[in-house]
Amino acid sequence: MPEPRIRPARAEDLPGIERLLTSESLPVFEAERFLDAFWVADADGEVVGVVGLEIYEDTALLRSVATAASQRGAGLGGKLCRLAIEQARQLGLRTLYLFTMNAAPFFAHFGFEPCEMEDFAEPARRSTQYSGLLQAPEFVAHLTKMRLSL
């Protein structure tokens, strides 16, 4: 398989993004709404990696970080995260937040630190993911909430 090319996501990438996210047990909701702040790794027309920003004023949720099993260990996830963080800085965002089940050590490499739901800035609390998780405290207890000041 050739080296994947990272590029902005397009509408025709949505089925591939959804397949990849579903295969990694990640939420697919509202990907189309924030597609203009998503990037994919494309290998011969196949989505083999994805990352997205869900932007709310001067904050965002880093979401949908996933790579296909065939790409694991090649550094693609790191490239996608660095790209999203750099784009967030270029957009003048102040803080990135994320939720993760078991990838906190991975995100810590980029400077993300654990936080609590109460630490999310007001604009980021408007995300569907945040408000949905408030309704499932038993699930939230198993997630690591993280933030990165830019």
Topology:
Blueprint: E1 5-8, H1 14-23, E2 38-43, E3 46-56, E4 59-67, H2 76-90, E5 95-100, H3 104-108, E6 113-115, H4 128-134, H5 137-140, E7 144-149
Parallel strand pairs: 4-5
Antiparallel strand pairs: 1-2, 2-3, 3-4, 5-7, 6-7
Describe the overall structure.
With 150 residues, the chain is an alpha+beta fold. The protein has one domain: Aminopeptidase. Helices cover 27% and strands 30% of the residues. It has a 7-stranded mixed β-sheet. A hairpin with a 2-residue loop joins strand 2 and strand 3. It is globular and about 45 Å long. The relative contact order is 0.16.
Key terms:
30% strand, single chain, Aminopeptidase, 5 helices, seven-stranded mixed beta sheet, alpha+beta, 150 residues
Largest β sheet strand count, sense and barrel closure: 7 strands, mixed
Distance between the termini: 35 Å
Strand tally:
7
Instruction: Briefly note the CATH topology name.
Output: Aminopeptidase
Enumerate the strands of the largest sheet in spatial order, edge to edge or round the barrel.
1-2-3-4-5-7-6
Category by helix and strand content: alpha+beta
* CATH class annotation: Alpha Beta
Give the H and E element order: EHEEEHEHEHHE
Number of distinct helices: 5
Query: Which architecture does the CATH hierarchy give at level 2?
Result: 3-Layer(aba) Sandwich
Question: Which descriptor suits the 3D outline?
Answer: globular
